[in-house]
Design a protein that fits this description.
258 residues; YmcC-like fold; 1 helix
Length: 258
């Protein structure tokens, strides 16, 4: 049986074109539905969908890929004011997104750095990253300016000394507005790829695939699936994540260091 998707999406999602609001899974409780609807940009997967191990790239590694990643912090500059401009494709429509490092923030009990993405001045995504103890981690994400989806513990994306193809299994909780949902997932620096950006040039980047699944009492799952291509000293050169039934694909146009 193939995958069937319903949507949990923020009401202010600029990609939503429906007139009467996005359809939600009727079996969710009202409380959980209202919390998730205002914070998550994820899909709910019914039976027969991918397991976390299937989130990753199936590409085979070459000899050049069998090199350790020496400094994971250099893959994503988190200096305040650093920015990336993307051309983003969603459902064959093109948008311009700008992601900016806003600086240090506190998420729950974790210190992190806020990266905020806007389109025409409207928020489309917030993510909180941290670099500590030789690890680059994702601490939280949200499509709302008021609430976070906190990963407890943070999800490792890549570690110093990692080889491409390493996998980091993750088990923890999604904490949303005082509520907790058991979740599991993984992250994997999959392969080194040459990426031709929209106009910034051609860069060698590390592809990092990650996926989180949170089973719900009714047998459904919340899924958050992302792929990031990171280049040393530049950060994001390409991004993808599942947005309802389509993938949102963002290709770098330019970056700026302040």
């Amino acid at each position: 049986m193939g995958c069937q998707w319903t949507t949990i999406t923020a009401h202010n999602n600029p990609d939503c074109k429906c007139n009467s609001g996005c359809r939600r899974q009727s079996t969710l409780t009202l409380t959980l539905r209202s919390v998730l609807a205002s914070t998550l940009l994820v899909g709910m997967c019914l039976s027969g969908c991918q397991k976390p191990s299937e989130y990753t790239s199936s590409a085979k590694l070459s000899k050049d890929d069998d090199k350790q990643i020496a400094d994971c912090a250099s893959l994503l500059p988190l200096t305040s004011g650093f920015s990336w401009t993307f051309e983003t494709m969603v459902d064959e429509k093109t948008f311009t997104d700008v992601a900016v490092v806003r600086g240090p923030t506190r998420v729950g009990s974790q210190d992190a750095v806020l990266v905020e993405t806007k389109r025409n001045g409207q928020l489309v995504l917030r993510e909180a990253y941290s670099v500590a103890n030789g690890k680059l981690t994702l601490t939280a994400f949200s499509t709302s300016a008021k609430q976070w989806v906190v990963l407890d513990p943070p999800l490792p994306l890549v570690k110093n000394g990692a080889h491409l193809g390493d996998e980091y299994l993750w088990n923890g909780k999604l904490r949303i507005d005082g509520k907790s949902i058991d979740a599991h997932g993984l992250s994997r620096p999959s392969i080194r790829e040459a990426v031709q950006t929209q106009s910034a040039g051609r860069f060698s980047g590390i592809r990092i695939d990650s996926g989180i699944a949170a089973p719900l009492p009714n047998g459904d799952q919340i899924k958050y699936q992302t792929t990031r291509w990171l280049a040393t000293g530049i950060g994001f050169i390409r991004r993808e994540y599942l947005d309802r039934t389509a993938r949102r694909r963002s290709n770098l146009v330019k970056f700026r260091v302040r």
